[in-house]
What we know:
mainly beta; 6-stranded mixed sheet; 5-stranded antiparallel sheet; 1 helix; 20 strands; disordered N terminus
Amino acid sequence: MVGGRQLLSLETGKRLVKVGRRGIPLHMFAKGLLYSTILVSVASVACSKPLPGCADDTAGCGGSGGSIAEAGGAAGSPSIEHDSAAFEGICGAATDCEPGMICLEEGGTAYFGGGPPAGRCTLDCLEDPTVCGDSGEVVCVRTEPAGEEPTAHCFPACSPGDGDDSKCQESALTACERLPDDPELGFCRPFCGSDDDCASGHCDRLNGVCASGSSAEDFGKSCEPDAEDPGCSGVCVALEDGFGVCSHRCRYGATEPCAGSDSSTFCAYPAEGSDFGDVGYCAELCDCQRECSHGDAVCDPFGSETVSMLLGAAGVCAVSTTVPEPLVCSE
């Protein structure tokens, strides 16, 4: 059983991460969206070993992430075992959590270089992953940003691709993120999608964490997926070869705007093999072409009037070559 027995690393080091575009059920999809594969290029990366899309000589491929490593701590059950619900608790301090637990505070730096929105109750499992328990419902995951000193914490486990939208608290700011060496295993990853989600007023869209600093206004704009620096503050989603758009994590299937409460956005791109409740990537909605930030994008109309009414837009910004009848702005 994996949960609690191993320390798991994310593929934070991959420059290119495949995601698939199967989309919302067919009646909810835009007419022309035919993407079978989408690539996500992440800037400022590192990997513990060569990974697909991260060559041996890629700059920065010497940090954490990329494999499931055997734990270095002692075997055996923890003295106090918390159920998975305890790791879903939000917190401002350890006193908000069950006895013995710690708080990954929103204003901290131990969670991918920042903090999860509203904070999360957890345990430090770097030295001994067995503190997460042996039920398989909680996993120990590396949480340091690339190139930094290792950190690891316990999170609820989840099954990516199972179509269960109720997993991971049914929260728009938490989704199931797949772990690289086991396609059946993921963890419930809290993340921010916009500055609105963080008390600090800044969301680091690359890692999905609340942090200090200023935000770049590049969501929806063009980027270069194959470049060493794709040119995004978040991730660069390649909808086709040579066509990249700046985006960030969101919960696939959620109907809430994924780039701020006043934005016209929707979580339209699922990660490869993902389904409802899993990590996806945010897209711009539109009523006509000029509303798309990307200069070469067009507005692909939804095939359902019900969907248009639900999302408050006629379509989604997409690659021109895949849209036979884009929505054109009238003068």
